[in-house]
Design a protein that fits this description.
It catalyses: CO + a quinone + H2O = a quinol + CO2. Keywords: Copper, Metal-binding, Molybdenum, Oxidoreductase. Its EC number is 1.2.5.3. This protein has about 800 residues and is α+β, with helices and mostly antiparallel strands. It has 20 helices and 33 strands. The strands form 9 sheets. It has a 7-stranded mixed sheet, with helices on both faces. α11 runs parallel beside α19 and α16 (about 565-595) packs across α17. It is globular and about 85 Å long. About 55% of the residues are buried. Bound molecules: cytidine-5'-diphosphate (CDP).
């Protein structure tokens, strides 16, 4: 029997960083005890529902609400006319544009909000929606951004066609912005004079984050106390509070925004939607709480989409394969209103990370944003501000260049990686990568899958196919990605003028347990589990004794929320820094109790001990108690700390992925035989949570690459507005993922951690896509667009003459 508690026991007891602590959230989630917005039921609560436009572009000639108002249970029907006196018929977007809250004279996309019905229950509201009579006059619809830039049709009649937009001059009445990075002239010169040039045009199709829980809000105006409480599916509750205050004129301290449990966000719940505004106005008007929760179709048709980037690239190299230049132009379809959720200075997000993991001497990126008759949005969908577009672009360009050079794409990557000793590395488009060891990760990945063996097998398969022995081809998808996460330094990144720092406030209770509140909000990422682990290691109290709270603006310190994998890089750093403030004070208390100088004690796991005399110590629990009853003369009692952390740089996680796929050319059905994912997210806080994040991100990557799409017909009708048509993978399609890692800590992050949540999506999409494209490479394929659904794969095989 063990009679002594060892240091290892003490470390294990903390359940700190590096330990696969079980998720503390799951007890309530797996027992149906989560508290989501739709679980919020307040006394006297009314329910809202939208009348939405069936047309993608139409003038609204009249709205008749009489029949709807006559339905028993209907309390109000709001239209733009009702909101106009309040100045709320339009609202500002996160991208510096404005968006109609309710149709003001015309509609610009199918599913646009036209009127808001408020009724005694959800069913009555839905019935009343059917009774609202709207007279529309159809207008010409534009769903193609290239056509939009040529068209005489003015989509945004509210804008002065010649006036500049939020991001500078506009070239056309349907043009939103031009955004450039890099040196255009130098890049074009290098490419014009290069030994080898590869070109590709690719469409990264429109898709949607489609979280399991749709968006919703419950607004409750307490007219007696003048206090507005809003529960909502908000990824950035403090920002919502500030926006709500600016829009409504209610002072910010009188607004309480609460994000309860959130059933997935993936960027979809960052923006402000008309439903939130209408629920708030309806509650102010009626004096009772009003709930609005959208259904699945409404979520897919009208809330923030992702991607929709038309990318045109040129990449140049020497004959030996050393890349010399990269040129990229993007036509970005932003839909009816520019409501992209990006930091203010980055209208195309971090697309200028498109030089990827490669040492490219010169590069240029130009992006043109365009209005069309599609839903607004443009969120990062599990990718930090357009990084997945950037990584998809460069990882396809590498493959196309490999074809041009007749070279193995794995070798081409190796030749061009930024080398370990080049970090910190400033890329041609401006970012300073903090740390990386790409070659080590790549070698590990290729060895793990026996890359050479796979290529030999593939070559044999090509022979067999040509000899008529098989109808299945084999693809080896490669991707090496560098992410950029942790927006961000306040000097670079703000949203609506608010710098993108984040925060943590800690209170240690006398008995040695604690509560920590953060400016972020988990949507399933397990913050309550992992942030407690950071603190456990920093302050020496068990993670089980630390409660993490997020999402209530009345209690949590101001923060910019959770998206773009910023929680660990920013709020995680704030947590460590606040923990260190606690530890600094604890050191003084320990020294006082031990009657030695502050410098003569040192921190050891869960205690401060006298240097050279480890048997003389005070545990953090004892110190916590002393902070409240044996106060050092001249020092304040209590043990609390707060940190607002402005990161000096982003963090740059990276990874090496390989996908092995067999494709039946007659059915177009891909079978994923193997998927290997090596991720380097710096210091690993909770390996099990990381693995979960990777499984989830890869599955969403599979979805996007192999079928998921928001497709429109020429009339602007959404063709994939239900889960019958919009592909959500199930256990049936999802392969067994093999995960692996290397650890290259971030040099500027207090604990060396980089974000991870988005990496698997960013790296996964090009990997799945490259697998499909690689299978057809031996038969002449250069590039085909995603999503690679069965029909499109079949078409590729057909175009290549494989059905002849
Ligand atoms: O911002 P978001 O929470 O979506 O993304 P993240 O910062 O990448 O973190 C996702 C989850 O993975 C959190 O629970 C993190 O604490 C955890 N994580 C980790 O355990 N180790 C890392 N190096 C990075 C994230």
């Amino acid at each position: 029997m063990k009679d002594e508690i060892t240091r290892e026991d003490r470390v294990a007891g903390l359940k700190g960083m590096g330990c696969s602590r079980k998720r503390v959230e799951d007890a309530r989630f797996t027992q149906g005890k989560g508290n989501y917005v739709d679980d919020v039921k307040l006394p006297g609560m009314l329910h809202g529902d939208f009348v939405r436009s069936p047309y993608a572009h139409a003038r609204v000639k009249s709205i008749n609400i009489d029949a709807a108002m006559a339905l028993p249970g209907v309390v109000a029907v709001l239209t733009a006319k009702d909101l106009e006196p309040l100045g709320l018929h339009w609202m500002p977007t996160l991208a510096g544009d404005k968006q109609m809250v309710l149709a003001d004279g015309k509609v610009l996309f199918q599913g646009q909000e036209v009127a808001f019905v408020v009724a005694s229950d959800r069913y009555v509201a839905a019935d009343a929606v059917e009774l609202v009579e709207v007279d529309y006059e159809e207008l010409e619809v534009i769903v193609d951004p290239f056509e939009s830039l040529q068209s005489d049709v003015v989509l945004r009649e509210d804008l002065d066609p010649t006036a500049p937009g939020a991001h500078g001059p506009r070239k056309h009445h349907n043009h939103i912005f031009t955004w450039e990075a890099g040196d255009q002239e130098a890049t074009e010169q290098v490419i014009d004079n290069a030994e080898v040039v590869a070109e590709a045009e690719m469409y990264y199709h429109r898709t949607h984050p489609c979280p399991l829980e749709t968006c919703g809000a419950v607004a409750s105006m307490d007219k007696v106390n003048g206090k507005l409480t809003v529960y909502g599916t908000f990824q950035a509750p403090h920002v919502v509070r500030t926006v709500a205050s600016l829009l409504s004129g209610i002072e910010e301290h009188n607004i309480r925004v609460i994000s309860p449990d959130i059933g997935g966000g993936f960027g979809n719940k960052v923006g402000v939607y008309p439903g939130y505004v209408c629920a708030i106005v309806a509650s102010i008007v009626t004096g009772v709480p009003v709930k609005w929760v959208e259904d699945r179709m409404e979520n897919l048709m009208s809330t923030a989409f992702a991607r929709d980037y038309w990318m045109k690239g040129k990449i140049s190299a020497t004959k030996e394969g050393k890349i010399t230049g990269l040129h990229c132009h993007v036509t970005a379809d932003h839909g009816a209103f520019d409501a992209c959720a990006d930091p203010t200075k980055f209208p195309a997000g971090f697309m200028n990370i498109c030089t990827g993991s490669y040492d490219i001497p010169v590069a240029y990126l130009g992006v043109d944003g365009v209005y069309t008759n599609k839903a607004p949005g443009g969120v990062s969908y599990r990718c930090s501000f357009r990084v997945t577009e950037a990584v998809y672009f460069i990882e396809r360009m590498i493959e196309v260049l490999a074809i041009e050079l007749n070279m193995d794409p794995a070798e081409l990557r190796s030749i061009n990686f930024i080398k370990k000793e080049q970090f910190p590395y400033t890329a041609a488009l401006g970012w300073e990568y903090d740390s990386g060891d790409y070659q080590t990760a790549w070698d590990k990945a290729l060895k793990a899958v026996d890359y050479k063996g796979l290529r030999a097998e593939q070559a044999q398969r090509v022979e067999d196919f040509k000899a008529g022995k098989t109808r299945k081809v084999m693809g080896i998808g490669l991707s090496f990605f560098t992410e950029i996460v942790g927006a961000g330094p306040v000097k670079n990144c703000d949203i609506l003028g608010m710098g993108m720092f984040d925060s943590c406030e800690i209170r240690i209770h006398p008995t040695g347990s604690a509560v920590a509140r953060l400016g972020t909000i988990s949507q399933g990422q397990g913050h309550a589990t992992t942030f407690a682990q950071i603190l456990a290691t920093e302050i020496g109290l068990s993670a089980d004794s630390i409660t993490i709270e997020e999402g209530d603006t009345d209690t949590a310190p101001y923060g910019l929320g959770t998206y773009g994998s910023r929680s660990t890089p920013v709020a995680g750093a704030a947590t460590a820094m606040a923990g260190r403030k606690i530890r600094a004070k604890a050191q003084m208390i320990a020294a006082y109790l031990l009657e030695v100088h502050d410098d003569d004690v040192e921190f050891d796991v869960d205690r401060f001990a006298v240097k050279g005399a480890p048997e003389r110590f005070k545990t953090m629990k004892e110190i916590a108690y002393a902070a409240y009853n044996q106060v050092i003369p001249g020092l304040e009692p209590g043990l609390e700390a707060v940190s607002y952390y402005d990161p000096p740089n982003m963090t740059y996680p990276f990874g090496a992925y390989v996908c092995v796929m067999d494709i039946d050319v007659d059915t177009g059905v891909p079978e994923i035989r193997r998927f290997y994912a090596l991720d380097d997210c710096g210091t690993r806080i909770n390996p099990m949570v990381i693995e979960g994040q990777i499984h989830g991100g890869l599955t969403e990557a599979l979805a996007v690459a192999l079928g998921q799409e928001i497709a429109y017909d020429d009339m602007g009708n959404v063709k994939t507005g239900t889960l019958m048509d919009f592909f959500l993978p199930t256990a049936w399609e999802v392969p067994n993922y093999e995960t692996d890692f290397t650890v290259t800590p971030s040099p500027h992050h207090p604990i060396g951690a980089k974000g991870v949540g988005e990496s698997p999506h960013v790296g996964g999409v090009p990997c799945f896509s490259n697998a499909v494209q690689d299978a057809f490479r031996p038969f002449g394929n250069r590039h085909t667009n995603m999503p690679h659904d069965h029909w499109r794969i079949w078409q590729t095989a057909n175009t290549l003459g494989m059905h002849d």
